[in-house]
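chain below, 265 aa
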Amino acid sequence: MIRQIKRALRSTLNGVQCTGKQKIFCIGRNKTGTTSLAKAFRQIKRALRSTLNGVQCTGKQKIFCIGRNKTGTTSLAKALRDLGIIVAKQRAAELLIHDWSRRDFRRILRFCHTAQAFQDIPFSLPYTFQALDMRFPGSKFILTTRDSPDQWYHSLISFHKKLFGLDKVPDYNDLKNATFNSLGWMLEANRAIYQTPDDDLYNREIMINHYKFHNQSVMEYFHHRPNDLLVLNVAEKGAYANFCEFIGKPCTRKEFPWENKTEDI
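prediction:
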């Protein structure tokens, strides 16, 4: 139901955006390249939007949300957008996972010119925040966390089970055949990020240690720069006010919007 509402709203928004604009009709018969032409139009639209966002964000302080996935990063992105801040396209950033795995941050840094705020992969992974800090001095960093590492782990497992329509923890073949982003991308991302055995991709001990290592590394890195890092649990009372104060924006609500809930999938 929620997806249907989103599609309806998107269709309405597209109609409003196109009001008064010259129409372009592709009147060639099917199988004459019409699909390729439509794809080209969409690519041009994305490129123009990315360029426009980059121009609008020139000179503005960057905001990097570097907490791990399933720590409220989607709710944080929604809160940023509600405050008028341009947030980068998550799917486009996720495709840079192989750059991250090689610790080659060149394309990731170039991607940072497309918006003002960034979240999730590869920004939520170890080592990225150091490269971002060196390239964009004076930026704000937000480390989102959960009540405990166990809570994060179980949230991630539940989300992936629901995402793939499973009643068990996903295994190697489940991720290999998943079509999220592209066929097999989930497996590639899992192998790039975690050093878990192929027959136990979601090994609890390894994944929790990975989560703890990232959080500890971030806090140690910014230990002497408290004004540059906000450690945030979006579920805690007063979290939204602390967030707004940190980025210098007025509060428009009492608490964070709750986005990307597992039960909504």
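Residues 44-54 have pLDDT under 50 and may be disordered. DSSP finds twelve helices and four strands in the chain.
thats it, cya
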